[in-house]
Amino acid sequence: MSYGVIATWRMAYQAVLNNIGTLANESDAGQTLEAVISEVENFPNYISVGYGGLPNQDGKVQLDGAFMDGSTFEIGAVAGMENVKNPISVAKKLSSERFNSFLVGKGAQSYASLNGFKIETLLTEGSNARYQERINHVKTGEITPYDGHDTIGVVVLDPKGHMVAGTSSSGLFMKKDGRIGDSALPGSGFYVDSDSGGATATGLGEDLMKGILSYEIVRKMEAGLLPMEAAQQTLTDFERKLLKKAGKVGAMSLICMNKNGEWGVATNVDFTFVVATEKQKPTIYIAKQNDAGQTKVIEPSQQWVDDFLLHQKNRLE
User: Fold this and answer.
1) Which principal EC class is assigned to this enzyme (predicted)?
2) Number of domains in the chain
3) Which residues are annotated as a binding site?
């Protein structure tokens, strides 16, 4: 049986590299996904996820995250949670609950505390410095408050055919207190069915949540479309509809993998993602939208990859 991982953004590369071997040894898809996302959440210099995440307008780090099991349809999600750096783990724990499986704010933190998750300050010196700098730049009109936001979304297929999907994000930089994006919303930010495949989304949550895009991609794969076709058709159709109705479309990037380990991506911005499968070592790709509105996938040069890895190593030291 095939196995594989696809994850949004190049920040997931090291975590995928460190954990893909567990799938080869028949680790459960859920454990692998939690390990991948947690590793990204725990690294303070990944500023849009977990510990050291992007603060809201009041300087507080509020996190969203979700987990879905494609074999049972169990879903767990948290949103606007403070002081717990691993929303993916809290969401995975919540997915085993028959009721109250989506918690927000103080309710999410209370659940996490009662279930043994560490309560700690998530605003690092670095994220606070970025917050103070952003305030000054907004005042001078150099940037807008909401520039900068990346969700880590992951889909995993294990050798037993078990599929899961998960997301984690600190949301928009300088968002309003209590703001929730698409990442924790089932069908929008994520969806998975082990009988067909899984998908996750990253980008402007306020636009992504207007379409149930992750679910739609999975539905199209179930109907027989290959992942690239399913992702591209979903993005193209929704972009066209949203532009007609609203007059503008924010950044959107979608990744997916089917039950055979085949993967797909669609985007309307420059976007990096990571893939690893039974037949393919962990690889960073760059996706771009061409003039015809289609997604073009590029494998960057080895020098580009080496420069990125060196940069990450320096950030760790």
Assistant:
1) hydrolase
2) 1
3) 179-182, 202-205
149 pLDDT tier (thresholds 50, 70, 90) = low
Return binding residues for substrate.
Answer: 179-182, 202-205
pLDDT of 146 reads: 63
pLDDT tens sequence across 22-77: 998 878 999 999 999 999 999 988 889 999 998 998 999 999 999 999 999 999 99
Q: Is residue 151 annotated as part of the catalytic site, yes or no?
A: yes
Which CATH number characterizes residue 121's domain? 3.60.20.30
Answering whether pTM is above 0.90, one says: yes
State the residue range of the domain holding 292.
4-316
Residue among 8, 32, 151, 267 flagged as catalytic? 151
